[in-house]
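ok new one. same drill as before - structure tokens go in, u give me an amino acid for every spot. 243 of them this time. try not to just spam alanines like last time pls lmao
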């Protein structure tokens, strides 16, 4: 071992030197060179820092630099996150998105353009005027629809969600408020009254018939029973002609 190389290192180094830092790393750790002023110092990390990607070899695991416009990358030519001012698309960092795509400033990616989508129209509403459905001949009817997909920044805007058109109805008078209920209550009362009247009349009729029946029964009891006339043939006694 070189006199400047030590094996009793700290921070995950397998071998190190006082001037260059880590020279090799313990298993599963990545070796990376960090600039410290005019010189580079070797360090051992569990994962590669921003702007680097990890490569594993049988003898050593290293962190290699991404492309200049990549913030993080999977390989040198495949970025997973771009630096400020660039948009990610298919592993590349672009200043401008291709045709048919738009820049998403929230995710800093090139995404597909989304157009607005609306549902089918609802049926037309009843013909109304000033909130009423009676007392007029010409009014308006309305139909509506809902937005089911809102557009992206470059997508087609949403259409109107309501439509109105003129309508004509057969003119009819408006019922006064409470009049319909009043008429129903009066009709119900009249029906109840008629039913009660019929019930009373039936009760009176049954009472009168019962009283007449009882009167006839009493009259029959008070009259004397008629005696039967004797049978002349039976009352004749034979005459004794022997004397």
């Amino acid at each position: 071992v070189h006199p400047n190389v030590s094996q009793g290192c700290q921070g995950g180094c397998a071998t190190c030197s006082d001037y260059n830092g880590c020279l090799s790393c313990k298993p599963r750790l990545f070796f990376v060179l960090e600039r410290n002023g005019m010189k580079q110092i070797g360090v051992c990390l569990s994962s590669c820092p921003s702007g680097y990607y990890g490569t594993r070899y049988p003898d050593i695991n290293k962190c290699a630099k991404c492309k200049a416009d990549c913030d993080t990358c999977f390989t040198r030519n495949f970025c997973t996150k771009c630096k400020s001012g660039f948009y990610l698309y298919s592993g590349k960092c672009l200043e401008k998105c291709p045709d048919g795509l738009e820049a998403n400033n929230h995710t800093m990616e090139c995404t597909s353009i989304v157009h607005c989508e609306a549902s089918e129209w609802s049926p037309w509403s009843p013909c109304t005027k000033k909130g009423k459905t009676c007392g007029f001949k010409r009014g308006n009817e309305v139909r509506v629809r809902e937005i089911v997909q809102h557009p992206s920044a470059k997508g087609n805007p949403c259409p109107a969600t309501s439509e109105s058109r003129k309508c004509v109805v057969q003119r009819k008078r408006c019922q006064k408020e409470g009049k319909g209920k009043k008429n129903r209550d009066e009709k119900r009362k009249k029906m109840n009254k008629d039913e009660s009247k019929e019930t009373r009349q039936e009760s009176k009729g049954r009472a009168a018939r019962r009283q007449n029946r009882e009167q006839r029964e009493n009259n029959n009891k008070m009259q004397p029973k008629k005696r039967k006339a004797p049978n002349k043939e039976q009352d004749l006694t034979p005459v004794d002609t022997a004397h």
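Helices lie at 179-222, 232-235. and btw The domain at 7-65 is CATH 2.10.220.10 (Hormone Receptor, Insulin-like Growth Factor Receptor 1; Chain A domain 2).
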